[in-house]
Write a structure and sequence with these properties.
Chain lengths: 118, 870, 510
């Protein structure tokens, strides 16, 4: 347990420090608000719309597909390092894994998930 | 005869298949093709199925091996399934049937009375659009009832048991168009399920102790049931006086409460008593005994032939049959026998009292049935199995005859009144003897029979039951070195006898009340017809315009609609046959005049009763003839009173009583309000519980809990609010509480222990073993070798000197450094204690079961070794 | 690499490959549903439903085949242990899961086109969920266990929300997903703590490490107990034991009925399989199995709560579908009684639990299937009122529904009777008399609401003006009902063989 004590101390110090800095600047800083100052800064041009914009749902689909193939790459890296030791079994396993992903890609393609405009 | 015997060997008696198959085929054909067959075809099919079955049953009865040892005829259809017994043996359960004298007699009753009632119904139901459906159900019922009485084991019996229940449910609700009938059917079904629960429990215990479900083997191994079972407290709750030691400062009230739930010694009963009571619960459900009788009177909503067959002659006697069938089990427990007898007796008088003032003819008969069933249970309860069964037999005839007679009357009334309730009301009848002579005479004979007029059937059977109750007692079975847990008090039988006599008086009274009101006096049915007006003035002061009208009435001629008329031959023939049996069947077992052919046939079935049922005292047997006196007096008093009240005085005393004590009259008429009580207590309780849970779901969890947890959840609130849909955070809160509960239980230490003091008396040695737990350490105090720190020692052995008390303390510490303590006070009785030949165990741990002692004590679960399979 | 390994894994492989093929076939198929069309056979369901059922049944057949060959004879099959254990226990559950999945797929084949939900994704989801369930049942290691759990659950989450246009369906899916993630997190955390305490992720290793662990203050037992709490709760969520059941009625009611069926049978069976493996396999020693202080009293209490609360609330429901949801919770309670009994009565009790799950699977599929059959486009049968008089207008459908309800209520000679009988017997054999009595009392209560359906079907007429339910016509649903009905009767008339198989399967884990 004692090994974790410095960690907890660090947490507490960080929290106290951050809280203190915010509080001090809020308390000590001069407050002089004008309407101009309250407007969000947007490169000097006039602001338009709200500050939160919903991303399109299609974005999520693409992002999820990206994650899938990202993980594929993560799995292939260690395999290449150990390629010689794993031998043919390793090759066959990785082959079937990639085949499965190809099937998935085909499915996604055919279902039209890759087309942005439809 | 010999040729038949060669054809059907006793061990593979395939004729039983014929008996069973015919009604089943009838049910199938009528159910599936009935609409196309037409009414004549359906009638032919149903009657020939039952008739054939009756002939086969008769052949079976004749082929039954008779003589000293009795005998059975058996037929095994197929192996159904098998179970493992507690000794690891395989217990096969077959679809098997075996018939002894009792089964064969029941078969004759079911098929014989069943045939007559089928014949009767073929006319009675002729106008019903559901004709084929009715006969399909009725045939199916006969099949199920035959399965029940012919079953070789309890599993097959249970199938029949459920089957008759189902058919009864279908037939009570036959006219399901009316809400009332459907409700009555449902009530019967649900009450019977309560009984079935008892039967299932009984089966499970029997299977465990006797290792079989076959009646023959259950009866043979019944001694295994003499095994004490601790029924309270359950499980491994502390059973010594640990509470005192743990709480020296406990005050008296506190102690009393604690001792109520944790008595010093566990309350023990024999397994046989448990089985007996559970089985009686089943029997009480099916046979409408206190406390489960409420469904039978409502069951009269079904067509009258159904009431005659199912709710009077056959199905309702299944409970009596079951008790008689497992007589050896009941004989192992005088307490269970006494329960059966006492509840039977209570039912007999209670139902009879309700029957006194009912207006509905069928209700009178229904309560009479409940009352008579009570008599049957008195019979089997006092060990007079043959007598109880004999009453089943005679009752089947006269009660079927009474119901069919009532049906005939209702048939005639209905033709006039066209209202089910009004046509069954005896206040609307009267004077029917003029119109329906056959119905009247058969009804009268059956009334004499049920009222116990010598020498009709009911006299012999009822007298036999009461005489046995008066003269015998049940001796507790030999239980080896254990004390019998309960003995049969000597006053019990006599009390039952006198209560029975009072009930018999009431029986005679209400039966003849029904008879006189129905068949004597003036016909009161004219008034009920539409168009009838009460005359405003006496005759002669009327204006002339109405003269014709009134003249007609005064002549006894109906205003409109037909006169009541006698029923056709198909309905009166069964009445006459049944009435003949009601008169003469009693001579099959008339003990006082030493003429009992049926008794001789039945005797081998109940041989086990010889040892357990003995005469109450010296010289009692000489009282047989004198004790018949009160029975005859009961008949005379009841009948005479009914005659005076209803024939001579036209029912005026009843009116007077109604006026004098309106509350009591209403209470009796409302069946002592037991239905309302059940509604309030049982149904209300279940409803209330369900309401509480739904309310908790809705208000408590939604309202209070959500608000309480709101503070805790506030931190997660910002995260969860994004997904806020409905009440999902409440669900999460419930899970969190559950998690906390599970955590609380497992993180807390539990200092439980079992004490094995089987050697306490003999050697003064006691072994205390602490229950294991994850990461537990133990420290013992007061064991002799003092322990300073916690250690892995889980079991200690201590020696106690005679007359000494030792206080032992167990401390337990778990991985979270939490501690718990448990104290024991172990006392060894002093030397002055009267020691019997063998040491008497203090807790069930030391008991070696009777019945061969083949069961190692440690295998009795729950009592000794709560650690189980480790 | 050898043939033994492939044969041993063949049920999994067959189902996975079949799923992949069907998925691609569906993507390339020209069959698309025209939302306005009335032709119920034009959509992908007409092909995929049968294909899915055949694939899953092939998995069941392979499992049965390996059973007869004998899994212990397959050399090399043990090389994937403990991640995937090929033993009789696995094979039994593979069979039950594939059977349940196949019947649910057949029900979907009728339901989806009828209610304009005919999109092909449903079938690959059902197959891959079943793959996950099979992995879950065969996992002897916390890692593969979690993998299987998530594979199964993700598919089911999507299937619950399959009726995208319906708010209820989406709400049900979100609720189930949220609480399911919560439970999965608890399970995962428990697994991590167990690994920390014992240094093992395989169940056998964990058990051994716990058995050899030094007791006392500050020992690793503190971690083990915490882990046990978390894992028990995680599993209790999956089997929907009270008080972790609250998602169940909402999710079951909001989901399309074939999904409900699938969740009630396959998901629940797989959860019980893994519960048996974990509680007996990992927590079977070291005081965790103690009757005073281990998991048995906890599970016993959950069982009592589950049975009682579920039965009492089920009687109050007005929707038959929701009633069946509560009924499935109640059945989970009965099974939990059997699970408690396993610690004392051993293989027989575990066999009775597994037999119960088999009987429960066929009865529940049948009951939900009959409910599906009672509805048609625009008039899905949901409430009791919807069923008024159906039994008289459509005797065959009414009879089927009654049969399955009687089996659920435990009336002989149906499968459900023997399922309950064996559980009661096991609990009496284990000396758990109070549990057995509570179980029997509860089954009496349950008869009330099962019977109520029959009362409505046979003894009520629809209120004047109320919509009259018209059963749908679908060969798939009819086939599923016939198969389930035959199984209910066969298991009720000849229960011995299947019980012996279940006991034999149970002994494989001991």
């Amino acid at each position: 347990m004692s090994t974790y004590v410095p960690l907890f101390l660090l947490f507490i110090v960080a929290a106290v420090l951050a809280g203190a800095l915010f509080t001090i600047s809020t308390v000590l800083g001069p407050k002089n608000p004008t309407p101009e100052k309250m407007i969000p800064y947007e490169c000097g041009s006039e602001t338009t719309g709200g500050r939160f914009v919903k991303p399109s749902v299609k974005f999520y689909l693409t992002a999820i597909l990206f994650v899938v193939f990202d993980i594929e790459a993560v799995l292939i890296y260690p395999w290449t390092v150990e390629f010689k030791n794993l031998g043919w079994i390793g090759l066959a396993t990785m082959g079937s894994f990639i085949l499965m992903l190809v099937v998935a890609l085909l499915y996604v393609w055919k279902k039209g998930a890759l087309e942005w405009e439809k | 005869m010999e040729a038949l015997k060669a054809q059907f060997p006793a061990t593979n008696f395939t004729l039983l298949a014929v008996v069973l198959a015919l009604p089943l085929i009838g049910a199938f054909v009528n159910g599936v093709f009935g609409k196309r067959l037409g009414k004549a075809g359906v009638r032919l099919m149903a009657l020939s199925a039952l008739g054939g079955s009756f002939i086969a049953a008769l052949a079976t009865f004749l082929l039954l091996p008779k003589g000293e040892g009795g005998g059975t005829l058996a037929w095994t259809a197929w192996r159904w399934f098998s179970l493992n017994g507690r000794m690891g043996q395989t217990i096969p359960i077959d679809v098997a049937f075996s018939v002894d004298a009792m089964s064969a007699t029941m078969m004759l009753v079911v098929t014989g009375v069943g045939f007559l009632i089928h014949l009767y119904s073929s006319e009675y139901m002729i106008k019903d659009p559901g004709y084929h459906r009715f006969f399909a159900y009725l045939n199916l019922f006969c099949f199920a009832m035959l399965t029940l009485v012919m079953a070789d084991n309890m599993a097959v019996l249970f199938v029949g048991w459920e089957g008759v229940g189902l058919c009864s449910y279908l037939l009570i609700g036959f006219w399901f168009g009316e809400e009332k009938n459907a409700t009555a059917g449902k009530k019967a079904f649900i009450v019977n399920r309560i009984g079935d629960f008892g039967l299932l429990v009984a089966m499970a215990i029997l299977l465990y102790y006797t290792g079989s479900l076959r009646f023959a083997e259950i009866n043979a191994n019944a001694r295994n049931l003499l095994d004490p079972v601790t029924i309270w407290p359950f499980g491994n709750l502390p059973i010594e006086s640990q509470w005192d030691a743990a709480n020296p400062s406990a005050n008296a009230l506190y102690k009393a409460i604690v001792h109520l739930f944790l008595p010093e010694k566990g309350i023990q009963v024999y397994a046989s008593t448990l089985v007996g009571l559970a089985m009686f619960l089943g029997a009480a459900g099916k046979s409408a005994q206190i406390p489960l009788y409420v469904w039978l009177p409502d069951a009269m909503a079904g067509p009258t032939p159904v009431s005659a067959l199912i709710h009077a002659a056959t199905m309702v006697t299944a409970g009596v049959y079951l008790v008689a069938r497992t007589s050896a089990v009941f004989l192992m427990s005088p307490a269970a026998m006494a329960t059966v007898a006492v509840l039977g007796c209570a039912t007999a008088i209670f139902a009879a009292s309700i029957g006194l003032f009912q207006h509905d003819l069928k209700k009178v008969l229904a309560y009479s049935t409940v009352s008579q069933l009570g008599f049957m249970f008195i019979g089997v309860g006092v060990g007079a199995f043959a007598a109880g069964f004999f009453h089943v037999f005679t009752h089947a005839f006269f009660k079927a005859c009474l119901f069919l007679g009532a049906g005939s009357v209702i048939h005639a009334m209905h033709a006039r009144i066209h209202d089910t309730d009004k046509s069954q009301d005896i206040r609307n009848m009267g004077g029917l003897k003029k119109y329906m002579p056959i119905t009247r005479w058969t009804f009268l004979l059956s009334c004499f029979a049920i009222a116990g007029a010598p020498p009709l059937a009911g006299f012999w059977s009822k007298d036999e039951i009461l005489w046995r109750a008066f003269s015998t007692k049940i001796v507790a079975p030999e239980v080896g070195r254990l004390e019998p847990l309960w003995t049969w008090p000597s006053w019990l039988g006599q009390t039952i006898y006198w209560v029975g006599v009072v009930a018999a008086t009431m029986t005679a009274f209400y039966m003849f009340r029904a008879y006189f009101l129905t068949f004597h006096g003036e016909f009161r049915g004219w008034k009920v017809v539409a168009g009838w007006k009460e005359p405003k003035h006496a005759h002669g002061h009327d204006d002339h315009g109405h003269d014709d009208h009134h003249d007609h009435h005064d002549d006894g001629t109906p205003l409109e609609g037909p006169k009541p008329h006698e029923s056709p031959l198909a309905m009166t023939l069964p009445l006459m046959v049944l009435a003949a049996f009601a008169v003469f069947a009693g001579f099959l077992m008339a003990e006082p005049i030493h003429f009992e052919p049926l008794g001789h046939i039945l005797a081998p079935v109940f041989t086990r009763a010889h040892d357990a049922v003995v005469l109450r005292g010296e010289g009692v047997e000489k009282l047989m003839w004198p004790m018949m006196g009160p029975g005859v007096a009961a008949f005379l008093a009841g009948t005479g009173a009914a005659m005076v009240v209803y024939l001579n005085k036209g029912g005026a005393p009843e009116e007077a009583f109604k006026k004098a004590a309106p509350g009591l009259y209403k209470l009796i008429y409302d069946k002592w309000r037991i239905d309302e009580l059940y509604d309030a207590v049982v149904v209300g309780m279940v409803d209330a519980l369900a309401d509480i849970f739904t309310t908790a779901d809705k208000w408590l969890i939604d309202g209070v809990l959500a608000k309480l947890t709101a503070a805790i959840v506030a931190f997660f609130g910002t995260v969860l609010r994004t997904f806020q849909t409905g009440r999902v955070q409440v669900y999460g809160a419930a899970m969190a509480i559950g998690l906390a509960g599970v955590g609380f239980f497992l993180v807390r230490p539990h200092a439980d222990a079992t004490v094995d003091d089987s050697k306490l008396r003999s050697a003064g040695e006691v072994v205390i073993s602490a229950a294991p737990g994850p990461g537990y350490e133990y420290r013992w105090e007061g064991t002799g070798t003092e322990q300073k720190d916690f250690g892995p020692l889980r079991e200690v052995r201590i020696n106690v000197n005679p007359g000494e008390t030792k206080d032992v303390k167990l401390h337990v510490r778990n991985a979270f450094a939490q501690e718990a303590t448990h104290s024991f006070a172990i006392t060894r009785p002093g030397r002055g204690f009267p020691s019997s030949a063998a040491p008497v165990p203090v807790v069930p741990g030391g008991v070696v079961p009777a019945g061969g002692g083949s069961i190692p004590a440690k295998d009795i679960p729950g009592l000794i070794n709560p650690r189980g399979a480790q | 690499m050898n043939s033994g390994l492939f044969l041993g894994l063949s049920p999994l492989l067959v189902v996975s490959l079949g799923g992949l093929l069907l998925m691609v076939a569906e993507a390339f198929s020209k069959r698309r549903v025209d939302e306005t069309s009335d032709d119920r056979d034009a959509g992908p369901s007409s092909e995929l439903s049968l294909g899915t059922a055949v694939t899953l049944l092939a998995g069941a057949v392979f499992a049965a085949a390996i059973w007869f060959v004998g899994p212990e004879k397959l050399e090399g099959a043990s090389s994937v242990a403990p991640w995937v254990i090929v033993d009789r226990f696995t094979l039994f559950f593979s069979f039950v899961l594939c059977l349940g999945g196949a019947l649910a797929a057949l029900l979907a084949g009728g339901y989806l086109p009828e209610h304009r939900l005919d999109r092909g994704e449903f079938y690959p989801l059902i197959i891959f969920s079943t793959v996950g369930a099979m992995i879950l049942a065969s996992a002897g290691d916390l890692l593969s266990l979690f993998l299987g759990l998530e594979t199964m659950s993700l598919g089911v989450y999507a299937m619950v929300g399959f009726r995208r246009a319906s708010l209820r369906s989406t709400e049900a899916a979100v609720k189930y997903f949220l609480l399911g993630s919560f439970a999965a997190a608890l399970l995962l955390y428990g697994g991590a703590l167990l690994y920390g305490a014992t240094g093992h992720t395989d169940l056998a290793g964990i058990r051994e490490a716990i058995a050899n662990m030094q007791p006392g203050k500050g020992s690793n037992f503190a971690l083990v107990i915490t882990a046990a709490v978390l894992i028990i709760v995680g599993l209790a969520f999956k089997v929907s034991a009270v008080p972790f059941h609250m998602w169940t009625p909402d999710a079951y009611e909001g989901a399309p009925t074939p999904t409900t069926t699938y969740m009630a049978v396959a998901v629940k069976c797989a959860a019980f399989a893994t519960m048996l493996r974990v509680l007996i396999g990992a927590f079977g020693e070291g005081g965790l199995e103690s009757w005073a202080a281990g998991w048995p009293p906890v599970v016993a209490l959950l069982a009592v709560l589950t049975m009682t609360v579920a039965n009492l609330v089920a009687g109050q429901q007005e929707s038959v579908k929701r009633m069946l949801a509560y009924s499935s919770i109640a059945h989970a309670g009965y099974v939990l009684v059997g699970v408690v009994a396993t610690m004392r009565a051993g293989g027989d009790a575990q066999g009775s639990v597994m037999f119960y799950l088999l009987t429960y699977t066929v009865s529940t599929v049948g009951a939900f299937g009959a409910l599906i059959l009672m509805g048609s486009r625009g008039a899905e049968a949901v409430s009791y009122e919807d069923l008024a008089g159906v039994g008289k207008r459509h005797p065959a459908a009414g009879f089927a529904f009654s049969l399955f309800l009687l089996s659920l209520a435990g009336v002989p000679p149906t499968a459900g009777f023997f399922g309950k009988l064996y559980i009661v017997k096991a609990s009496i054999g284990a000396g758990l008399y109070p549990l057995a009595i509570i179980l029997l009392l509860n089954s009496v209560i349950s008869a009330y609401y099962y019977l109520r359906v029959m009362v409505y079907m046979y003894m009520r007429e629809p209120a004047p003006g109320a919509p009259i339910a018209k059963p749908m016509r679908s060969g798939y649903v009819a086939t599923a009902l016939v198969v389930a009905g035959v199984l209910v009767l066969v298991l009720g008339l000849w229960p011995t063989t299947s019980l012996q198989i279940a006991v034999e399967a149970a002994l494989a884990t001991r």
